[in-house]
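Lab notes, practical 5.
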Amino acid sequence: MPTRLFHISDVHFGVEDPAALAAVAEAIALEKPDALVCTGDLTQRAKHSEYAAARDWFSALGVPVVLEPGNHDMPYYNPWERFTDPFRRYNALRAAVADGFESADVVLVPLRTTVRAQTRFPWSDGVVKPAALSPAVAAIRALKDAGDPRTIIVIAHHPLLGDEGKPQNPTIGGDAAFAALAAAGADAVISGHVHIPFDQHRSVGGHAMRMIGTGTLSTRLRQDSPACWRVITCEPGGVIATELRLAGAGLGGVQAA
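Output from the prediction step:
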């Protein structure tokens, strides 16, 4: 059977949507996906209480959990901790609930797009630094050099490219990162942050890759996009199928293009 992943993002515990979370948990219990992948913004302000709520929810799901942090997951009210150890609270959650995921069909490669500070304001949009990009590219190249047939999906919080037709990319270093990952052999990058689902085939510098995003499971809805998550089915050789699920539409969901 192909590997089935549930992809969620932007839960924002603290302003979460309980009904949406219940819909995801019910679908997981009934369908038993191979893993749940959350691409960041697990919390609203990175409070200890919000991380505790996230830990309780993720640990009760009964499936492997894969996490990547978002810009909301660094301390908001503790500047000292944000600058000295920004991911301490996130790392504690990850150690508690993310127990590893292996598949014969797909490899998930993390790419950190969140940084503790930027030279612009606000600090919400993404930045891809060489220290984050290099190990991701190296991991993909190693898989390809070894002849690994599995589909390669990069997981990040911020979309690497901006909206098509717009001159500015809100993710600093995103264009170069997209090109490098695609050139190395990645098949897709999945993300969140914008709270709007999308599924696109994009190209930078002659290097093509699929960009897949899901919406939010919080009350912070944008552009009339409802709370939702995505089912991603993977087979070797870059074969990826996606289905968008609306939290209020039952388990049948809405199928994406």
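Observations recorded by the TA: The first helix runs from residue 18 to 31. Residues 161 and 174 are 6 Å apart (CA to CA).
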